[in-house]
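ok so heres the complex, two chains, lmk if somethin looks off
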Amino acid sequence: MSDTAIQTLKNMLAHLDDAKKYQSLRDVMETLNAPDLAAVFEDLPQEKMPVLFRLMPKDLAAEVFAELSPETQEALIQGLSDRELKLVIDELFVDDATDLVEEMPASVVKRILAQAAPDTRKMINELLKYPEDSAGGVMTTEFMELRPDMTVRQAMDAIRKNGIDKETINNCYVTNADRTLVGVVSLRSLVLEKDEDRRIDDFMDTNVVSVTTSTDQEQTSHLFEKYGLLAVPVVDGEKRLVGIVTVDDAISILQDEADEDIAKMSAMAPTDKPYFRRSMWDLYKSRAPWLLFLMVSATFSSMVIRSYEDALAAVTVLTAYIPMLTDTGGNAGSQSTSTIIRGIALGEIHGRDLPRVLWREFRIAILCGGTLAICNFVKLLVFDHIAVPVAAVVCLTLVLTVLISQLLGTLLPVTANRIGIDPAVMASPLITTIVDTTTLLVYFNIARVILHL
Amino acid sequence: MSDTAIQTLKNMLAHLDDAKKYQSLRDVMETLNAPDLAAVFEDLPQEKMPVLFRLMPKDLAAEVFAELSPETQEALIQGLSDRELKLVIDELFVDDATDLVEEMPASVVKRILAQAAPDTRKMINELLKYPEDSAGGVMTTEFMELRPDMTVRQAMDAIRKNGIDKETINNCYVTNADRTLVGVVSLRSLVLEKDEDRRIDDFMDTNVVSVTTSTDQEQTSHLFEKYGLLAVPVVDGEKRLVGIVTVDDAISILQDEADEDIAKMSAMAPTDKPYFRRSMWDLYKSRAPWLLFLMVSATFSSMVIRSYEDALAAVTVLTAYIPMLTDTGGNAGSQSTSTIIRGIALGEIHGRDLPRVLWREFRIAILCGGTLAICNFVKLLVFDHIAVPVAAVVCLTLVLTVLISQLLGTLLPVTANRIGIDPAVMASPLITTIVDTTTLLVYFNIARVILHL
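and the predicted structre for the whole thing:
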C-alpha cells in the first residue's frame, strides 16, 4: 500500500473512532493486511493505540503487533492490561516473541515473561541463548515433526492435530526417537500421495540441506537462494533438530545485508530503519564519524602535495590533473573492491583464490588503464594543448594508478576477511582515500623523472 | 556445498564414469541436490555431459537442467537426441522453459519449440509476450485454481487430481467462472479445516495482494518482503488470474537488484554472472566505459583549476587541501545519494517528498559540515601550522561543500527518478565527479575573497 493510501486509511479510522462507530471500525480493519495496519499504528497517537488494537480479532492483532517497530510495540504494551498482553504473547510465534524480549527495556521484558505461558517462556529462554545473528538466533522452535515409521495417514492425522500452532507445515521434518534429523517431507507430497498406508521413510527426501545453531544468519539465508527453499532446519552439535528458519526471515536478512553493504560503500554506519523513521541525531551519528575519519585520513595526501610543492610550482599545470587522477584511481579501486566484497559475501570468492583473483585483476587493470591512457593522451594534446612530456607524465600515472588501485582494491578486502574483519569496511570511501596518496606519490615521482624537476 | 566439495565430487564422478560404474554413478547422483549437481555440470567437458545427464531420473534431470547457465544448457542440448530433449522440456516448469527459449540462439529455440507439447508451446508463447522484467515475464502459468463454491473435500480432490503439475500448491487461488481472482486459500488451512463440507468462500482470504502482468518485477518482489508471502497472483487488465510469481524467483530478483545497485555505485555496468564465470572481455566491458566517461567528466575540474592557476601560484599551500576537500565532498554526496536511491528503490521515498527530504538533508549537512570544519580548523592551526585566514578558507569551504554535495546528492536522484531515468545512475562515482567541480569553484572563490587574490 502506498503512503497516500495509508494516510487515507488513517483519516478514515480516526473519523470512525471519533464517531465511536466501533463495529464499522472493526469491519474495516478486518479487510486489511497486517503490514498495512501496522503502518497505520506507527503514526497513531499513543492513547489511540489500545482502543483500535482491542477491536481486532486476536490472530490479526498478534500479526499486526509482530510487524510494529520496537518503539511502537513498547508504547502499545504500556496501554494494554496484563490480560490483554497475555493474549498477544500467546498468539505470537515464539521467534517473534523472542525478538520482542530482545528489543524491550528490562521492565517491559519482566512483564512479558510474567504473562507468557510456562512452555512459551521456556522456548523464549532457549532461543535467547543463541547469538542474535546466528541461525539459532533467528529460528523458530514451532515446526512440524514426524517419525519415519509413520504412514501417510498417521502423518496427516498428526498434522491435523498439531499443525495449527506451527509457523509452517508446508515442510515437515522427519526425526528419529533421539530427535536426529533424518529427512524432510513436504505437505504437498503427503497430500498428493495416493497410498495412504505408505510409510514416510519410503518417500521422504533424505538429502536435507540443514544448518547448525551457530551458522551465520547470512550464510543461512544464501542457502534459500541457492536451493530455492521455503525453510531450513537447524540442528545442534549432536545433529538433533532444534528449530527451523523460514523464508520470510531469510528475505529480510538478505535485504538487510544488501542495505548494510550499500551503507558501508557510501561511508555510512548501517541502520535498519526506513529513511523517515530516522531522527536527525540517528542520521548525524551514522554519517559524521565516517566523514571525519576519512577527512583525517586525507591528511596523507596533503602531506604528499606539500612535500612536492616545488615541483608543482615549477610546472603549475600538473595541479590541474590531480582531481582527475585521484578520482580515476578511486573509481578503479572501488570497482575491484566492491566486486571482491560482494564475491566474498555471496561465497563466490575465498581466501585461497587470492593469487587467481590478483592475476585476473592485474590483466583487467592493464586493459582498462591502457584504454584510459590512450584516450587521455589524445585529449591532452588535441584539446588541452599540453606539451608531450607532461601528457606522458599524466598518462603513465593513469596506467599505474589504475593498476595499483585495482590490486589494492583486491588485496585489502581479501586480507581483511582473512584476519576476521568484515571486508566491507574496505569499501569505496576508504579505498578512495588510500588510493589518493599512492596516486599522488606515483604522479610526482614520474614527473620528477620525466620532467627532470 | 563449498567449491572444494564440488571439486571432490567432480573427481569422484569422473572416476566412476571412466570405470563405467554407471549404477554407482546413478546412486551417487540421486543423493545430491540439483544446484550442487548443476555446479558439477558447469565444469564438465562437453562430451561427458549427455552420459551423466541420461543417468539421472527425469525429474532430477529437469531440475538440474533449470539450474544450469545458458552456455551449459546450450552445450548439453547439442548432445541430446530429440526424444531426450522432449523429455526435459516436458518436465520443466513453463517459466523455466520460457527463460530457456529467451536465452538460446534461434536454431536451438526452433528445436525446443518443435519438441514441446502443443499446450506447453502455447503457454511459452503466451509468456514470451510480456517484457522480461515485468511480473508477466517472470510468472508461471502452472498454479492451482479452485472455485468459491467448492467444499473442502471437493477442493482436496481437485488438488490431488491436478496438483502434481503445478509449481506450488501451498497457496491455491479461488476464481469465478470468468477467471476473476476472488480469494486465496492455503493448503495448510484446507488440511487443518475440520469440516470437510465447508465451502471455500466461507473461509478463503478475500484480501489478496496481487499484481498485474505489467507490474515491474522488482516492485513485485518487494511485496514478498513486505507481506511475507510465498507467491503473488498476477492478473490481467480485466482482473482475470493469468499466473503467479513464486518466492524463489522473488529472492533471485531482489538479490540481482541489490547487485545491480552495488555495481552502479562502484562505476560498473551490472552483470548477473558470478565473478569467476565472467571472461576478461566481460569484466573489461563492464568497467572501462565507466572509467572513461568519468575521466572525461573530470575535465571540468581541470578547467576550474587551470583558470585559477594564478591564485594557486600565489598561495601554493591551497593545493595541498584539494584532495581532502574533493574527497569529503564526494563522500558527503555519496551518503545522501545512496540513502535516496535505496529509499526510492524500497518505496520509502517518493517524488512529492522532495521538499521534506531536502529540508532534512539541509539540516544534517549543516551539522556534519560544522563538525568537520571545527575539527579541521583546530588541526590546521595546531598540527599543520597554517595561517588563520587560509585555515578559514579551507574550513568555510568544507561547510559549503558538504552542504552543496548533500543537496545535489538528494536533488539529482529524485529528479532522475521523476523524469523516468534510473536514479542509481546518479550513484557515488558520478556525484563525486560533479561535486569535484563545485567544490573547487567554492574553494577558489572563497580564497579570492578572504585572501584578496
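quick notes: Chain A has three domains: 3-129, 145-246, 298-451. thats all i got rn
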